[in-house]
Design goal:
heterodimer; A: 691 residues; alpha/beta; Fumarate Reductase Iron-sulfur Protein, Chain B, domain 2; 38% helix; 13% strand; B: 240 residues; Rossmann fold; 2 domains; four-stranded parallel β-sheet; three-stranded parallel β-sheet; 7 strands; 53% helix
Chain lengths: 691, 240
């Protein structure tokens, strides 16, 4: 079954146009950052990228935090800090649970160790073709390059990542990796690999990628994914995607390797009820991404799809050394990318200009703290400290304060001549007469210098003078002269009692005490009919369709009508007993036009279907065919994501795979214009009936 | 009460501090100017020199502690006093810093709270630049517009991304000059796009940077401090 990648055919014909600092696998800036960022400003297309990012910032970050999301944010901030309070303990628990579920856990100190582990798995299993879903952890260890050097075909399957792989570039944003590319850029790139025209609309480009990637999913030996959250109490790995490639990668190949960095662990499965909605809201202002895949072990006996082997690679790369220190909180990050959208410097220069795996505020903090400390040493200075990132952060990481502290660390490590200047400056200015003297000297010197020479002085003036008039330092001291001549002999007033000092900053309250509201802020539905109506409305918002029928028989007929005599894959579900006889059933989901499933639960507030894998209940049925029809009795409706997660947490035995499906497969990787039906179904019908 | 002018006012931009004194006096305040004042120390801390930042923070506290209230026309400096002093100082100094934060006001906050009766009129079209440290570190999001709203004849036109950084960022403006200038250009373009004559802010740092860029480019938009606008609007029948 294995062989070479179809999706990568023609890759050698691509003529790279990127600057050297946009390359994948970059270890450190090729030139000092002031120079790289200046080049970035001149990169063709940068103004268009900035304009796109400005729009996304207004859309995603501009609205700020209001209930119920501000409450979820508080809870998430607590959960993440609780995790970091005993990271090693939770990692131990996670490893134990994953092993008990039949997975294999590998702890890796650094990139080399992690690469060694994955290489060994690939070699032992004769792997030739790997499909990958988006993972920043694998970017961090430069996995693709390593596997390619072994002669393995590695294919990025997220649309944005696929574009970048062909273009030989790094992601420029955590969740919008190709945000710096226009659709014309992408069309030109695809035409190079295709050797002919591919169309210029985002739909055409997505269709081209879908068609090329499809066979690779089917034929790959190994799927490599990241991990968004790993629940320690159940050993469940949660993966968030919109296109459906994450589900493909974790269900089709015979081996699944999940790569996570240590901080991705969370204490409890039920924490996902907070974190899954929050990461989607922070990243793109939707209540839930289209797909959440919750993997608890490899395929079980009797299951027809899913991986035979599940490996979890947990990479440290310097993170645990941050525990207990002033930067510990940076590990609370849930990789939503909101700080990047929010950052005006990031939007101005683009993500590549940071010359590191992670750009923007989180990159400027994290990069100098992990891996090679010299690699991102200058990054904390690439910020105007405007504070927008702290407001945007869904887990309240004080990024600006960390940037300030990292600057101090940087200066403390260097025998910088500026240090002497700053020390002398502070000493003079911390003494009234010293400050006044410096003001007089400044004024005299400035007045002596011809204006042309002022910008040529060494020091900060030279930077300032690049494109700005020099500050009018000839005014130094004027303020005090004015005050003196106006009211000579002014004396300080007598001190009086000041108001009471404000209370100190309050620490986060316990997560348990905070309310957990519904995501739509509305009261729970009054009865099953209202729940069904709400579900239908929610489905409409995510481009799926709800059909409310008055009886089981009408519902079954509706399912048959929707399948319309086309080849249909159907799962073995208690709600579907007798349904197969009415449909032209095919065994292989890859041959089917429609997949028919029941659900474990359906969530009224978001329109989310919870599907579980099991014997006769394949992962592929709701994923591989281009259309999905779900039959849902009212008894399976729950009001909220929180209730759904709680119910699923109580399932015994815990399913090897739970998929949350909210709407149809979607990608926004091309100029952020949504396209549908990328890897998962482009049509979803939910047939509801009283029962 | 005492005026903390900021080192920018002392060295390069005396105008806003003078205007602040005039407005505060028009409100009936007795404004003292402690001669020992220099700088809050923000440039040192943000450049990676917290020791020097602490030295100036302590000097600042000693200078202003005798006063019931401190008012400053520099939002960024006030935010530094409120947020960074308690964070970088330790022990009794941190307690003294918190005490000072409780009675240190940014100019527009003070005027918004206590300057309601001022007769203000001025014929101008302005847009507001919400400076970052006031907006975020200080959490002050209303006072500038509330004060401007009291000026008869003055029109506020809102620009897009009013709360986006202008690109000054202290030493950032010299370390990454081209990025800093590109951010100023975006800001100025938005202000011009809104049809404003003046871009008004309560932060001399932003204003120095924006004005320097506007002057370099020959932009018709002027960056002006709120205090100067209010001072110009003072008096029976208003100013110009």
């Amino acid at each position: 079954m294995t062989g070479r990648s179809e999706a990568l055919q023609g890759r050698s014909k691509v003529v790279p146009t990127r600057p050297d600092w946009a390359a994948p696998g970059l270890d450190r800036p090729p030139r000092p950052l002031p120079q790289v960022t200046t080049e970035a400003l001149e990169r063709p297309g940068q103004p268009a990228t900035t304009a796109r990012l400005d729009i996304l910032n207004r859309q995603y970050v501009g609205p700020g935090w209001a209930p119920p999301w501000s409450d979820l944010r508080e809870r998430a901030a607590c959960i993440r800090r609780e995790t970091l309070g005993d990271l090693e303990g939770y990692l131990g628990q996670l490893s134990e649970r994953v092993e008990a579920n039949g997975g294999v856990v590998h702890r890796a100190g650094g990139p080399a160790e992690a690469l060694g582990v994955i290489e060994e798995i690939a070699t032992a299993n004769g792997v030739e073709l790997v499909v990958k879903s988006k993972s920043m952890a694998t970017e961090e260890i430069h996995l693709n390059h390593h596997l390619e050097a072994m002669g393995i075909d590695v294919v990025e399957t997220d649309l944005g990542e696929y574009i970048l792989q062909l273009a030989d570039e790094r992601p420029s944003h955590i969740v919008a990796p190709a945000v710096h590319r226009s659709k014309e850029d992408i069309a030109a790139l695809f035409e190079q690999v295709a050797g002919g025209p591919v169309g210029h609309r985002p739909e055409d480009l997505a269709a081209f990628a879908r068609q090329r990637l499809r066979q690779d999913f089917h034929r790959a030996d190994m799927g490599i994914s990241g991990v968004n959250f790993a629940a320690a109490d159940t050993g469940t790995l949660a993966l968030v995607t919109n296109e459906g490639n994450g589900r493909m990668v974790t269900s089709q190949p015979r081996i699944h390797v999940a790569v996570m960095t240590v901080e991705k662990v969370v204490p409890r499965f039920t924490d996902l009820a907070v974190l899954l909605p929050l990461v989607a809201w922070a990243a793109t202002r939707v209540p839930l991404s289209v797909y959440q895949t919750l993997v608890t072990g490899p395929r079980r006996p009797g299951e027809r799809d899913g991986p035979d082997q599940l490996h979890l690679v947990i990479v440290d790369n310097g993170r645990t050394s941050l525990l207990g220190g002033r930067y510990q909180e940076v590990l609370a990050c849930i990789r939503c990318g909101a700080c990047q959208f929010s950052c005006p410097v990031y939007r101005t220069v683009g993500g590549h200009a940071y010359a590191s795996v992670y750009g923007g505020p989180i990159g400027a903090v994290l990069t100098p703290l992990i891996g090679d400390p010299e690699a991102g040493a200058e990054l904390p200075f690439l910020s105007s400290l405007c504070g927008a990132c702290a407001d945007a952060c869904p887990v309240k990481i004080p990024l600006p304060d960390m940037l300030v502290d990292l600057r101090a660390d940087y200066e403390a490590r260097r025998p910088d001549p500026a240090r002497i200047g700053w020390a002398a400056w502070a000493r003079a200015w911390a003494w009234g007469p010293g400050f006044r003297a410096s003001s007089r000297v400044t004024r005299r010197l400035w007045s002596l210098l011809p204006p042309g020479a002022r910008a040529a002085l060494p020091g900060p003036g030279r930077g300032w003078g690049a494109g700005r008039s020099m500050p009018p330092l000839e005014h130094a001291g004027e303020l005090r002269e004015w005050l003196r001549t106006r009211r000579p002999g002014q004396r300080p007033a007598q001190p009086g009692p000041g108001p009471a000092p404000p209370a100190g900053p309050e620490g986060p309250t316990g997560a348990e005490q905070l309310p957990h509201p519904g995501l739509d802020g509305a009261p729970p539905p009054a009865g099953p009919e209202e729940a069904a109506r709400r579900l239908s409305q929610a489905l409409e918002r995510v481009r799926a369709t709800g059909h409310i029928c008055s009886s089981a028989e009408e519902a079954r007929q509706r399912v048959a009508d929707l399948c319309a005599g086309r080849p249909t894959a159907i799962e073995d579900h208690p709600d579907l007993v007798g349904m197969a006889e009415r449909l032209p059933v095919v065994e292989d989901a890859w041959e089917a036009q429609v997949g028919v499933t029941g659900v474990e639960l359906a969530v009224a507030e978001t329109g989310t279907l919870a599907l579980v894998a099991g014997p006769g209940r394949d992962r592929s049925t709701s994923l591989v065919p281009p259309e999905h029809v779900a039959l849902v009795p009212f008894s399976r409706l729950v009001p909220s994501v929180a209730v759904a997660v709680e119910r699923l947490a109580a399932l015994e035995p815990r399913p090897s795979c739970i998929s949350f499906v909210t709407g149809i497969s979607r990608s926004s990787d091309i100029e952020h214009q949504p396209v549908y039906g990328v890897h998962g179904p482009g049509k979803v019908d939910v047939v509801l009936y009283p029962g | 009460m005492a005026l903390f002018a900021s080192c920018i006012a002392d060295l390069a931009a005396p105008g806003p501090a003078r205007a602040a004194v005039e407005v505060l006096e028009a409100m009936g305040c007795r404004v003292s100017f402690p001669e020992a004042q220099s700088c809050c120390g923000q440039p040192a801390l943000n450049s990676g020199f917290p020791g020097e930042g602490r030295l100036l923070a302590r000097h600042w506290i000693e200078t202003f502690e005798p006063f019931q209230a401190v008012v400053s026309p520099s939002g960024s400096c006030v935010a530094h006093v409120h947020h960074q002093f308690p964070r970088i100082l330790e022990g009794p100094w941190a307690a003294r810093a918190r005490d000072m934060a409780g009675r240190t006001y940014e100019f527009s906050q003070f005027v918004a709270a206590y300057g309601e009766g001022l007769p203000l009129a001025l014929d101008a079209t302005v847009t507001v630049h919400d400076s970052c440290h006031m907006w975020r570190a200080l959490g002050e999001r209303r006072s500038v517009r509330s004060v401007l709203g009291r000026i008869e004849g003055l029109r506020i036109v809102e620009m897009e991304d009013a709360d986006t950084c202008c690109g000054f960022g202290g030493t950032f403006s010299a370390k990454f000059p081209y990025v800093s200038v590109a951010m100023a250009d975006a800001k100025l373009a938005r202000g011009q796009g809104a049809g404003a004559q003046w871009m008004v802010s309560a932060d001399p740092g932003c204003l120095m940077h924006l004005q320097a860029r506007a002057a370099w480019k020959g932009s018709p938009l002027q960056a002006r401090h709120l205090a100067e606008v209010v001072r110009d609007a003072l008096g029976p029948g208003g100013g110009r």
